[in-house]
């Protein structure tokens, strides 16, 4: 299946022409006559006159625009607080979300969404998300053990608790 499909024909009327045609039909003129006059297919004009919703061009996504936006925001939020996510994490998150909602999906529930879904998601949200190369483990370990880094972590954790009112929700014991 081609993943970068380009439509070969474009509509021959503008949104402005479509709205003008809808207005004329609503004023009582013949739908067929107006469709011919503006070069709009009668079925398209009829759908717009009667307010039938149209899907976006191309294949439809499993998640709505708002759901994908929430997931992209969650990925950015997690990365800001030191938990960067990769493609496997994204696939697991989307798969579990769809299972939770009992949403019918084109992929296997056990495996979750495949690489084409993930690539499409990344392409749709390329302005919000970015890919970064990870640091080597030895450098990360060396920097992670400094007193400043540990103090920053606990101050950030404290601010998250304050923002979301989590101080009384659950007692967490840390063994050092």
Describe this structure in words.
The protein is elongated. It has helices spanning 15-26, 31-38, 42-49, 65-80, 87-101, 115-124, 137-144, 147-164. The protein has three domains: 15-49; 65-124, no CATH class; 135-176, no CATH class. With 176 residues, the protein is mainly alpha-helical. Helix content is 54%, strand content 0%.
Number of domains: 3
Estimate the mean pLDDT confidence: 82
Order of helix and strand elements from N to C terminus: HHHHHHHH
Task: Please summarize the sheet with the most strands.
Answer: none
Structural class: mainly alpha
Number of helices: 8
Topology record:
Layout: H1 15-26, H2 31-38, H3 42-49, H4 65-80, H5 87-101, H6 115-124, H7 137-144, H8 147-164
Brief sketch in words of this structure:
The chain has 176 residues and is mainly alpha-helical. 54% of the residues lie in helices and 0% in strands.
List keywords for this structure.
3 domains; 176 residues; mainly alpha
